[in-house]
Amino acid sequence: xxxxxxxxxxxxxxxxxxxxxxxxxxxxxxxxxxxxxxxxxxxxxxxxxxxxxxxxxxxxxxxxxxxxxxxxxxxxxxxxxxxxxxxxxxxxxxxxxxxxxxxxxxxxxxxxxxxxxxxxxxxxxxxxxxxxxxxxxxxxxxxxxxxxxxxxxxxxxxxxxxxxxxxxxxxxxxxxxxxxxxxxxxxxxxxxxxxxxxxxxxxxxxxxxxxxxxxxxxxxxxxxxxxxxxxxxxxxxxxx
Length: 240
Known about the structure:
This protein has six helices and four strands. It is mostly helical. Helix 1 runs antiparallel to helix 4 and helix 2 (53-79) packs across helix 3.
């Protein structure tokens, strides 16, 4: 049986305590904005943008806060979690995750339109420069998505496919999770939830589950029927 890589990357750069600490996803944002600042400064100094070099810092700062961050968060709430509007304070709990790439794009669209009109700049000129810098941020964001074990693609049997245990936790995969729980409880009664299975799989590392025989059961013995691993990315619910 082909051995697949079992995704088990830590989303934290390091933990300070409990669920608190700097994450790779946050680092991706920092690197994206830093690289965007550097690239726009280069373009401004060479005359490719109407922004003056001394304006770039302010533009990137406000674009990050009001365009990407605010737009991404509100996009996530409106498109995926509208029930959060019943408890507005929950929108501020960004440490629990939840960003939308298309929300960030809409936010950046509106912010650049406002900024261009206020400073009497060409909005299309700003847009031309942003699309040069955007791929760098998207690259860092997708790297962070992979570290988080999210945005995987369709099932595949190719040698470079990867198994994502977190898939069992998604509501759409509830039937598969129930089958995995039933099978794994025959081996270890403590494996009575999808979270317990995922934790055991990650703890087992290179067990039978890690070498492609099963996605779900962490121990040797009777396992559910093997399923292919995942390959590629699907549309984003969190921006980079």
